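go over this record:
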Amino acid sequence: MYRGLACVLLTAALAACAQGAQHAGKNCFHRHDFESDIGYCQAVRSGTTLHISGSVGVGPMPDAMRMAYAELKATLEANGLTFHDVVKENVYTTDIDAFIKAKEIRKTYYGTDFPAATWVQVQRLYEPTDVVEVELTARIR
């Protein structure tokens, strides 16, 4: 009887440890209340990497880009980082030509220290009014 109880307790303890290990070293950062409602983190720190969820912009592309990159700057700063720490950028836009025409706005955030980047045109983003969404991966010094 004690042996069976010990096995049950050991199994429960190991399951709890395994469950905790899935979240060990992973920290979620929220900027807005709606993120939990939707089911995501604005940024997740895992080890020496910060993964930043897409920040969006609406309106004419230059304004939308300033909006998205300003949000990304705030998220980086809240985690003690800058655009110089960004190693990868993914851009999703409903109008790639407009994004390319406004690329100088993007350069004001990076200066001459650019990350690896992928720019993709998509049919639609999460909200129909969004015209650009930018996600980043940064190294934590």
User: Anything to note?
Assistant: The first strand starts at residue 26 and ends at 29. The radius of gyration is 20 Å. Confidence is low (pLDDT under 50) at residues 1-22.
